[in-house]
């Protein structure tokens, strides 16, 4: 074969390979995102900037909104989605360390949550952010979780809550334990059904972040006599999990850093605004001895779940250290619980 022809053939072959590699790097990836409002919802809106970031890093996303979180998790697990946006507790089945972030009473303030997310986005924590072919590619706040009651009197004490019906998300094991320890009667629910159950008074209580107050019309369930306990039951996070083998190796870590450096500042003002949108007359102060009892109950529940191995132990001890770094006077800081004393 003449040399010029051979060179032309080799050059053409190399160009084809380069072209194929470029296509592979920029191939569209599906990201399935749960937003109870749908395509026009606030969570989908927050993903628009992320899609631009991903494109700049060689990943083109096809954003697919879902109104059922259960279906998102199922489609992702079955491989029909390359990435998924889910709540932390849902993510637990994929990456235990990251999913344990949303543990009951784990964090009390947004500053504490920011610290936890900063640790999780660090290079040191990178080995903990992937498991069984899945990896966390970003975490943003979802808000403080509060207890909503159709009657303020049910929030007067733990004894007052005994026997009351509380909507409990079916897969949230920790919530069932909370209900049982408090003596309440858990009623199985889904993210889609707990709002209607509360609003038509089929249950007496429900737990939710403030971002659910308006979209799910929880004011209907509160009515004239209802109340919201001014005590943080836990912190909701929204996490993106990906199939590791469908993305460039360095993409998830870069994505986690982007979420920390950019998404936090975009999302947290909206979360704080949602907290303020619950009318003042609904809030029921939980302070003094009542607060001590609530904290003690949640500590007991976390220790029980530690003993059962349900929470990731490294995450559980990390959150204890973050709580105690914020308030070293907490009784738990010197107790040999959740991995040992931190003071």
Describe the protein's topology.
Blueprint: H1 3-25, E1 28-34, H2 42-56, E2 60-66, H3 69-77, E3 83-87, H4 88-91, H5 96-99, H6 110-120, E4 130-131, E5 134-149, H7 158-161, E6 165-169, H8 173-182, E7 185-189, H9 194-199, E8 205-209, H10 219-222, E9 227-230, E10 234-243, H11 251-277, E11 283-285, H12 288-307, H13 313-326
Parallel strand pairs: 1-2, 1-3, 6-7, 6-8, 9-11
Antiparallel strand pairs: 3-10, 4-5, 5-8, 5-9, 5-10
Helix pairs in contact: 2-11, 6-11, 8-12
Summarize the structure.
It contains 13 helices and eleven strands. The protein has helices at 3-25, 42-56, 69-77, 88-91, 96-99, 110-120, 158-161, 173-182, 194-199, 219-222, 251-277, 288-307, 313-326; strands at residues 28-34, 60-66, 83-87, 130-131, 134-149, 165-169, 185-189, 205-209, 227-230, 234-243, 283-285.
Structure description:
The chain is built from 13 helices and 11 strands. Helices cover 44% and strands 20% of the residues. A hairpin with a 2-residue loop joins strand 4 and strand 5. 41% of the residues are buried. Helix 2 runs antiparallel to helix 11. The protein has 343 residues and is an alpha/beta fold. The protein is globular. The N terminus is likely disordered. Strands 1, 2, 3, 4, 5, 6, 7, 8, 9, 10 and 11 form an 11-stranded mixed β-sheet that branches.
Strand residue content: 15-25%
H/I helix tally: 13
Oligomer: single chain
Tally the beta strands. 11
What is the CA–CA distance across the termini?
Answer: 79 Å
The main pleated sheet reads as: 11 strands, mixed
Radius of gyration from the CA trace? Answer: 23 Å
Which overall shape is indicated by the principal axes computed on the Cα atoms?
Answer: globular
Helix content: 40-55%
Please state the structural category. alpha/beta
The helix-strand sequence is HEHEHEHHHEEHEHEHEHEEHEHH
Q: Flag low-confidence runs.
A: 1-25
Mean pLDDT: 89
